[in-house]
Amino acid sequence: MSDVTTTDPWQMIFDKAGDLADSLLHEQPKSEFDAVDFEEKVVSVLKKIAYGEVNPREDWSVIIRPVNKKSKLDEEIEKHFEIALRQAVFVRVIFEYDMQKIRANFPEVSQRSMLLRSGEEMLDALSCAQQHATAWRLLKEVRDKSFEARSRNASRVKDEIKEEKKVMLRSMIEPSIERLRPPGGWLTPVLASQDIAKYIVDIFDNLPLSFSMGKDEMSQEIHRLIVKDSRFRKAYETNAKEPIVDPVKMRRVIVKFGYNDQE
Questions:
Q1: Distance separating alpha carbons of residues 84 and 98, to the nearest angstrom
Q2: How many CA atoms within 13 Å lie on the side-chain side of 119?
């Protein structure tokens, strides 16, 4: 059985949040940020979270609304930037502090559910960061550039968000295979895919950024990954009653009967 106390499945979410924070900071005008400011800004956010000056979970209920007054535009741009960066840094806090504390201070039998809850909070924080980063970028385009530039940027951001959703889905499958394993192990990849899809859909339904894939479509995608992707197949077979049996590939054999005219 795989190690239920590992934080490895959440490493991708941690990496994505780090990439987002780096992108946010480097997209700032050089007149506002220089190379030294990048790390100082992250450290400043970390301190505010650690000292309880801000509660990152409160950002999850912030509703993004249209900006109708030009005088409010700069204020909203700044607000979305601060929330996006804070949430990206919060992912780092959960991964580097909360998860390590769980592994160091709690027995293994308790760690599985606790790590999963922390992982779900990482997903909440990353989704919130993505949502506000998108709003920040689009409002900047409204303020600074033409309609054509805004349209191009909106399309690019939509593609980025779509890719992030795929990463979040993949990051949830492996721990779910272990967590939802029935007594005696999974009977078939189909049953595993259906149960895991229902569980993940329930999680994404509570995220601030909607996930368009329905349960049936997600079940099909999970089944494809379990059967075709070596990483997920290994995780499944570790927690299954029987290994996956691949369909026998039949070769069509053509037998030719002929006569030799010279015989």
A1: 20
A2: 28
Burial (CB count within 10 angstroms: exposed 0-12, middle 13-18, buried 19+), residue 258: exposed
The three-state DSSP-derived secondary structure of 39-64 is: HHHHHHHHHHHHCCCCCHHHHHHCCC
Closest CA to 97 of 168, 12, 10: 10
pTM of structure: 0.56
What CA–CA distance (Å, rounded) separates 128 from 140?
18
Tokens of 33: 């940020």
Helices (H), the chain: 11-26, 35-50, 73-93, 99-105, 108-144, 147-179, 189-204, 215-228, 230-238
In contact, 85 and 25? CB cutoff 8 Å: yes
Tens digits of residue pLDDT in 44-91: 898 999 888 999 999 998 887 777 677 788 888 899 999 999 999 999
Q: Measure the CA–CA gap between 145 and 150, rounded to whole angstroms.
A: 7
